């Protein structure tokens, strides 16, 4: 390396964020804190997002932003967190956070420069990349990474940050004589192999919820490597900050004169002693997901991206002093909780990464103790099935659906029900398909019924009964399926047909769950009258208005000829909502002029039908992320880009939202409206099969606007 290149994370851009309009930006730590109330973390890799949260959290603890008492914590989440000390701290410590500082490089060991001339010690920087190590033995078998690749400092630092937080086992392909005995072997970092979770919202909201009081204070951070004790001895972090900045490896990035990084020197860092006691109560472990017994929750327990039950249960079983427990106490006082994201890495063996996973946990389930009871019942049922005794034949194994019971958490009906009804519903969901062997099917059903505590008839199991007779004699299994809540009992199921109901004239009523037969309730409503005005814009002699509205949706020009036409006769406060609704109507017509102009379903409810195959609504990453951004947006003026995306998706699938309801919601657009949108989108509804099979798969290959 020649010359002096400075690259401080305080002032150099490296954090992926989205603003309230959904536009992506790359910001430095100081910029992210300056705009903390207006931006959201948006790294495509959930592990990088988790590592970024932990680093910003360490900065905030070091700057003294953490509350000292629970009362101060409540004040931070209700009135806002004062980030001025953190802004000043980042300015004062920019050199300490320099990745290429000669004496104290961030998260690195400057003493490794003494062996920089040893060819064997210089390894490609891509060995720090976790994604390139997936399903390969870490570090020792990364043949595809042997070709030197030059990366900019931002990429090199992200890999280094991930390595220090999520570093797993494995051995370096270097002789131990280069660094000394046992120095080529790695040990796990604190977050490796388990799940961690963090609050959603803006950066300011995330820090306000996550910064909690720490007994004895946060302690001191170790931003750069320094030895601890004798070589090979294990040690434990001394404080919260010490654990958050724990170095899994000694490392040194080698920057070249062109400003790119091609090689890295690294070996074993501090050996962390094995945790004892409850995992979430250890220093730096408050964001780790632990079971009620204190062990880390493994990613192997997660069945998929929508399998929330294994996470909701430990949330409500969290021990006193852990982060979830403090959030529950705060939510009980203020009445709401944050959305939460949980992410983790699965390691089938010590030195190989199998996969990463990320799960979204809606705030309504984290503030409702009933969800904890249902999730605990689901997990008890799963555990009982795994322990169920069946003959040792492969065709008799009971294979559970990967997300068994998670739909129950999204239904108000089951949040208020008793254990027997939950067991019956879980039994119905877990029921295997009837196979060619009736005896095997009978054994499986009998095992399930025993777990679900469904009573057998007096004649069941007699010597004259066939498996089919035994099954038909079990109440709630075959002869009395109505006793088991099934898809037909799901809340709002009666309104599912409205998702696909469209017309050429506006509906006479405003959609409302359970009120599909409203007697012209909205005929005289101003919103309904405005929706009728929209239809006139599609007439041949007024189509110029639609063109002007499409242009306004691209660039909101205050001199647009469409403005006086759309807002005529409307009160001033509703002008922007009217323009936005009319612009979305124009986008809908431009995208698919053959689609019907009017629908009966609110846009957030309609979004449940958007997608393809089984990846629809909350199951579709693109749709879910777009809706989450809409729901988090506080000002209606910042909704234009996100709503335009949703309306285009709907038009592509010949679906049309209720424009009157959309106009009313945009006029109001307050916290209650945003919560209502979340409920409409996330509440379980069964899509009619005849419609789901006919809907075009327009999103099967669509590019995710978030991951870009």
List keywords for this structure.
three-stranded antiparallel β-sheet, single chain, mainly alpha, disordered C terminus, 708 residues
Oligomer: single chain
What is the radius of gyration computed over CA atoms, rounded to a whole number of angstroms?
A: 28 Å
Number of helices: 27
Structural class: mainly alpha
Kindly estimate the percentage of residues that lie in beta strands according to DSSP: 5-15%
Number of strands: 15
For the sheet with most strands, the description reads: 3 strands, antiparallel
Contiguous runs where pLDDT drops below 50 for at least 5 residues? 456-497, 509-524, 685-708
Shape: globular
Task: Determine the N-to-C terminus distance.
Answer: 34 Å
Provide mean pLDDT, rounded: 77
The percent range for helix content is 25-40%
Strands side by side in the biggest sheet: 2-1-3
Strand and helix layout:
Layout: E1 15-19, E2 24-27, H1 29-34, E3 39-41, H2 46-62, H3 70-79, H4 84-92, E4 123-124, H5 153-166, H6 176-179, E5 195-199, H7 203-210, E6 234-235, H8 240-244, E7 249-255, E8 261-268, E9 271-272, H9 309-316, H10 323-334, E10 340-346, E11 355-361, H11 363-366, H12 369-387, H13 406-409, H14 412-415, H15 419-430, H16 438-451, H17 467-472, E12 502-503, H18 526-537, H19 543-554, H20 562-567, H21 575-591, E13 598-599, H22 603-606, E14 611-612, E15 615-616, H23 621-632, H24 640-652, H25 659-668, H26 671-682, H27 689-694
Parallel strand pairs: 6-9
Antiparallel strand pairs: 1-2, 1-3, 4-8, 5-10, 7-8, 10-11, 12-13, 14-15
Helix pairs in contact: 2-5, 3-10, 9-12, 12-15, 18-25, 19-21, 21-24, 21-25, 23-24, 23-26
